[in-house]
Amino acid sequence: MFRPNFKITPSIASALMQIEACRQAIDNLPIDATVLRHLRETAALATTHYSTYIEGNRLTLPEVRAAIKGARFPGRERDETEVRNHYRALEWMEALAERQGALSEAAIKRLHGLVMTGRNKGSPYRTSQNVIREAATGVIVYLPPEAADVPRLMKDLIGWISCEIEDGGLPAPIAAAIAHYQLATIHPWLDGNGRTARLVASLIARKSGYGLKGVYSLDEYYARDLSAYYAALTVGPHNYYDGRAEGDVTGFVEYFCAGMADAFTKVRAAALRAGTDTPDRSARLRELDPRQRRVLDLFRERGSATANDMTKILKLSRRTLLELCREWIASGFLQYENAARKNRSYRLGARFTELLE
């Protein structure tokens, strides 16, 4: 059974208090839905850019944004594919974080599969030995466990993660830090281990209530000083079997929690600025049920919508959707844009048009 070796130091305790204070403050801020969507998009792009940058991707942040939207960069096709795959994996991780239940081994394999191929197919673990070498000299800096031991080690790790998410025995940032470290230590695949480890750490944080509305990125902190990131991940001997498995990971937990506190503090400041720049529409938003919130973006984008448009988003039958629209018209949430049966369309009711701004 996996039992991490660490202790909670004063610096870890201080970072945890800072993280918690920021989390509570941001959860209580009345962030406008349009601003929130922008902050989420910015965070997702930053996560993809910095996580792939750590692995040597050459695209800049504006180029990453363009590549995800379909732009091509001749001579850098591998970089384009890498960022698109990571963005897909990130989107799936965010959806996975909303699901109830334990984290499965199949889910982790699928996350890696998306990172590497962009397809919803799990990656098998490596069947050969891999090594981590220093780029400049070629000297081996880490020899991971043998391939035959990977399935057992991953099963133990994922079992530990599931218990921590369900029972909450450790503060979520610590559990996320340890999972990040241990997955990178096991190195279960020949490539893509770092990107997957960082996504898994974020997944644990989000599933444990530290999603922060999806508006933060931890990867920028790592990318800001790569030597510090790699130094924090280096614990004990360079051979897994010479004591690496039992090494004290307190240093990496300190590093990770400091990075999370840094990211949360920046988001808190950005959210406060956004809150002062936009009207408080939280009261009006609280009047909306989950289905109404889901179609709100559709009206923001188009101004009006047909029953078919809303059917696709809500995954309802046309008959059920039309009954729902009648209820929404009666309540004032919708009104007719075009009442003709053949070309019927809807727009937001007058009381809710402020949410389109």
Describe the structure.
The chain has 357 residues and is mainly α. The protein folds into 2 domains: 10-277, Fido-like domain (Fic-like fold, Orthogonal Bundle), CATH 1.10.3290; 282-356, Winged helix-like DNA-binding domain superfamily/Winged helix DNA-binding domain (Arc Repressor Mutant, subunit A, Orthogonal Bundle). It contains 15 helices and 4 strands. It has helices at residues 10-27, 33-54, 61-68, 77-97, 105-117, 150-167, 172-186, 193-207, 219-224, 226-233, 250-277, 282-286, 290-302, 307-314, 318-331; strands at residues 132-133, 140-142, 334-338, 345-348. The protein has a two-stranded antiparallel ribbon. Strand 1 and strand 2 (140-142) form a beta hairpin. Helix 4 runs antiparallel to helix 5 (105-117). It is elongated and about 75 Å long. It starts with 9 loop residues before the first helix and ends in a 9-residue tail after the last strand. The mean pLDDT is 89.
